[in-house]
Amino acid sequence: MSLQGKTAVITGSNSGIGLAIGREFAKAGAKVVLNSFTDSAEDHALAESIAKECGVEARYIQGDMSKPDDCRGLVEQAGACDILVNNAGIQHVCPVESFPTDKWDAILAINLSSNFHTTAAALPMMRAAGWGRVINIASAHGLTASPFKSAYVAAKHGVVGLTKTMALETAEEPITCNAICPGYVMTPIVEKQIPDQMATHNMDRETVIREVMLSRQPSKDFATVEQMAGTALFLCSDAAAQITGTTISVDGGWTAL
Ligand code: NAD
Q: What are the sequence ranges of the domains in the chain?
């Protein structure tokens, strides 16, 4: 499928799932805007390599998604936003009574409120263009909970609620809003945790993956960033034009349990 003529803005896209989505959209011919809170040569080089590889325009725009003005500024600087992917996210694991307030505030700001600010800025552009897709990267934790992840679970449930509201506010327009709910996805950060987990549990790689990391993922296999990108691309297709206000789980059966 072709995304030629479309501009996609992907928050938190200098690594992991966001970067894979940027690459997939560029392969389909979209102009892409990558983002994170840093502003390094490597960040800009990522956009340049995607531009070269895919023959499209690709830019990196610095913006801290914990700050409302930066969220809106990112979309404004992009100049167009036919596809908005709200992907930036952080995690902190701690019992609720000792959960640091600054971590709670940061997780709510980056994982949830940024989606509100970017969407508010992008909707007028989508309406002017007569087409739009909002794709929120939520989580299996947008539908279920785990102990010690209060802020993350609250924020991701909030993302699912915001997704439904945005879908209703745009229901009669050619704009859709959906959330992808990944289970455990193999990213560089996840890969780096494996040796520590092996040492902590005194288990070999395969056992730590099956019994510790993927204990809640019935497929006993990680999802891949490419599978997330493929799902996001599908949500941009004509086949998905009537899919709005819903969640798509890509979680190896986690939420079926
Ligand atoms: P990642 O750490 O590679 O990606 C997170 C991105 O957010 C990075 O590009 C990071 O730079 C960016 N970011 C962090 N703080 C930011 C800020 N203040 N402003 C702008 N950008 C910021 O991890 P990932 O696994 O690719 O996560 C992407 C999304 O997928 C997140 O929303 C995460 O909650 C969600 N998710 C991941 C998994 C998984 O298993 N990896 C599972 C479910 C949901």
A: 7-185+223-256
Query: Ligand 1 centroid vs 172 CA: distance in angstroms?
Result: 31
pLDDT for residue 189: 79
3-state percent helix, strand, coil for the chain, nearest multiple of 5: 50, 15, 35
Per-residue b or e along 182-206, where b marks 16 or more CB atoms closer than 10 Å to that residue's CB: bbbbbbeeeeeeeeeebeeeeeeee
Ligand 1 atom 32: residue of nearest CA: 89
Per-residue pLDDT reduced to its tens digit, 90-144: 999 999 999 999 999 999 999 999 999 999 999 999 999 999 999 999 999 999 9
Q: Which residues line ligand 1 (CB under 6 A)?
A: 11-18, 35-37, 64-66, 87-90, 110, 137, 139, 182, 184-185, 187, 189-190
How close is the Cα of 156 to the center of ligand 1, in Å?
12
Domain range 7-185+223-256, CATH architecture: 3-Layer(aba) Sandwich (3.40)
Q: Are 44 and 28 in contact (CB under 8 A)?
A: no
Rounded CA separation 34/76 (Å): 14
- Return the biggest CA–CA distance within the chain: 58
Nearest to 11 by CA among 66, 92, 91: 66
State if pTM tops 0.85. Answer: yes
What the block records as the tokens of 8 is 């996609």
Q: Which two tokens stand for residue 129?
A: 């263009």
Q: Provide DSSP, 197-249.
A: HHHHHT--HHHIIIIIITTT-TT-S-EEHHHHHHHHHHHTSGGGTT--S-EEE
For 103-144, list the strands marked E by DSSP. 132-137
